[in-house]
Amino acid sequence: MTEEIMQALESLNGEIYAVWFLIGAALVFWMQAGFAMCEAGFTRAKNSGNIIMKNLMDFCIGTVMWFLIGSSLMLGSTMGGFAGKLNFDVLTHFADFDYSSFVFNLVFCATTATIVSGSMAERTKFSSYCVYSAVISAIIYPIEAHWIWNGDGFLVNWGFHDYAGSTAIHMVGGICALIGAAMLGPRIGKFVKDKEGKVVKVNAFPGHNLVIAALGVFILWLGWYGFNGAAATDINTLGAIFLTTTVAPAVATVTCMIFTWVKYGKPDVSMCLNASLAGLVAITAPCDVTDCTGAAIIGLVAGLLVVFGVWFTDNVVHVDDPVGAVAVHMMNGIWGTIAVGLFATETAPGFVVAGINEGLFYGGGFTQLLKQLGGMVCVIAWTVVTITIAFTIIKKTIGLRVSEEEEITGLDATEHGLPSAYAGFSIMDISNTMTMDINENTSLGADSYEEASEAKKDASVKVVNPMPATGISKVVIIAKLTRYDALKKAMNDLGVTGMTVTQVMGCGIQKGAGEKYRGVEVDATLLPKVKVEVVVSKIPVEAVIESAKKALYTGHIGDGKIFVYPVEKVVKIRTGEEDFEALQDVE
Cα(118)–Cα(310) distance, rounded to whole angstroms? Predict the structure, then answer.
């Protein structure tokens, strides 16, 4: 009777952890929302709809690729430890299929593709994104994951350990992100170059909504308990994984807060959000085989490494990574993989099941560390070669990048026909004469007005409701106060001598405040502004617009805006002259 009870309890225990396995898969799926919120919050409002669409399609395209080819390449019977045999069991043998394993590994696969989205945000063609997302989900991820997690994979047999994906998911996604962002090139105005082409300045592009980004981080942190813990099959191992998955990101965030506070004078919000994710990425590989001390040290290094990584991508390799995916996922994925060889300890509940050697700092010598380094090199080589081929083919066929005009306008409008992801919301300046997005105050590059493209000219000084050059027109010009003298001279040279000038106040941050975003000083529109109104009839409106744009252009979005209105009647009070005659002494 006792034996029957024990068997029943073991069966019940297995059923409980089978349910937890699927709950964990659901938590990992929910992380897609976290990635979407993070990426949208760290970038500009004009691209939010595009980013949401990309994160949605990551999972949807990934699912299609997974049941067609990816799942069999990863989970199928091995071909020499390299890849699984291609099969369609999910379609042809559904009654006997391992549904849980299929779904669980699918949500991990989708995460890998999502990582790439952030680094290539705001300038990638949506069609190209769909293609390389499919390639990652169908081929790149399933094969290297077969090496690491299929029981017959060659890295498993070698003794390489990556419990939940520091290498298989985060490092691979981060490498794809780095190569993709490098081949794609930076966003317009991110880097200022001198005449020799050397980068002399890095411009900050503040995220439009750090509240949404923070929500994304909390969603991801919650999902990470499923990410790391879903495969646990006993309560001690699950509890230990939850502990290490909490300690590492917490220590990383505190470390980053202190470091940025000391280095930049104030704790950097966006960097601390990245640090939380960095700590989670770093603990993903060793979460089952390390203790609290090891998790704390792993988190401490991650908190410093993410700051270094953001600085490195900006200032050394000059790769534009809007969300810090390279620093968070690639660099900390590498660090987490190495950490197994340093901090694995037999006191961790999952150590015996893992079947590996203790880490260097716990008396195990270099054995496990060398296995981690060797396995990591194999995965890096595979990822670099395959993703470079994929991006090269895409770039030479359908193209990776949108046009300059499309990038400046925003991908919501140009790629999806979406006027705004925030319909009904606007930021108005105090003069109530123009709508501004503060985050659009960014450099368009170091071109002079003559060298700038029409797209850059139009983005710098926007023209609203241009009128044909007939009849009488009123031109209203909103500009920086510092450009008033240049504007006045341009109008006088054109023959316009009568102007109404009003000083107005606009939204922005005072220049010279020295505020930093992710370690880069934020440039902002000067306050106050000036509003210049002229009425013309003989002088062509197009000439007024062109002269004003040339006078106001500095190569930054937000240099000014021009409005043109029709005028039905003009009366000069002193003489009683009307319309055309009333304007002859001012133009």
Answer: 13
What Cα–Cα distance (Å) separates residue 176 from each residue in 56, 140, 317, 326, 584?
A: 19, 10, 15, 9, 64
Checking 491-496 for CB contacts under 8 A at 24+ apart, the result is: 491/532, 491/534, 491/544, 491/547, 491/548, 493/547, 494/539, 494/543, 494/544, 494/547, 495/539, 495/587, 496/534, 496/536, 496/539, 496/544, 496/586, 496/587
Q: Using an 8 Å Cβ cutoff, are 199 and 191 in contact? A: yes
Half-sphere exposure of 214 (CA within 13 A, CB side): 8
Segment 335-358 shows an average pLDDT of: 95
What's the rounded Cα separation, in Å, for the pair 321 and 55? 17
Question: What b/e sequence results for 343-373 when a residue is b if at least 16 CB atoms lie within 10 Å of its CB, and e otherwise?
Answer: bbbeebbbbebbebbbbbbbebeeebbebbe
Beta-bridge partner residues of 374 = none
Helices (H), 328-439: 332-343, 351-354, 367-397, 404-409, 411-416
Range 28-63 burial, b when 16+ CB lie within 10 A, else e = bbebbbbbbbbbbbbbbbbbbbbbbbbbebbbebbb
The alpha-carbon radius of gyration of the chain (Å, integer) is 29
Give the pLDDT band (50/70/90) at residue 472: confident
Give start and end residues of each alpha helix (H) in 398-440: 404-409, 411-416
What CA–CA distance (Å, rounded) separates 504 from 430?
7
Average pLDDT on 491-515 reads 70
476 closest CA partner among 493, 488, 463, 460: 463
What does each C-alpha distance from 497 to 490, 536, 583 come to in angstroms? 10, 10, 10
Measure the CA–CA gap between 82 and 268, rounded to whole angstroms: 44
Q: Is the pLDDT of residue 484 over 50?
A: yes
pLDDT of residue 515: 65
Query: Measured between alpha carbons, how far is 42 from 213 in angstroms, rounded to an integer?
Result: 6
Q: Could you give the 3-state DSSP secondary structure of residue 412? A: helix
Mean pLDDT of the 320-327 span: 97
Longest dimension (CA), the chain: 116
Question: 246: which residues sit within 8 A by CB, 6+ positions away?
Answer: none
Cα torsion 248, 249, 255, 256: sign: positive
DSSP, collapsed to helix, strand or coil, labels residue 476 as strand
> Could you read off the pLDDT of 228-250 as tens digits, one per residue?
999 998 999 999 999 999 999 99
Q: Cis (ω within 30 of 0) for the bond into 528?
A: yes
pLDDT of 416-468, one tens digit each? Answer: 998 888 876 644 333 333 333 434 445 666 567 777 777 777 767 777 665 55
Q: Is 352 helix (H, G, I), strand (E, B) or coil?
A: helix
Q: Which residue from 113, 163, 115, 117 is spatially nearest to 138, judged by alpha carbons? A: 113
Between 514 and 185, whose confidence is greater?
Answer: 185
**Model confidence pLDDT, tens digit, residues 256-272:** 999 999 999 999 999 99
CA–CA dist 204, 268 (Å, integer)? 13
What CA–CA distances, in Å, run from 187 to 203, 280, 308, 382, 408? 10, 28, 21, 28, 9
* Residue whose pair of structure tokens reads 């020295």 in the numeric block: 514
Q: What are phi and psi of 101, to 5 degrees?
A: -65, -35
Burial category of 432 from C-beta neighbours within 10 Å (exposed 0-12, middle 13-18, buried 19 and up): exposed
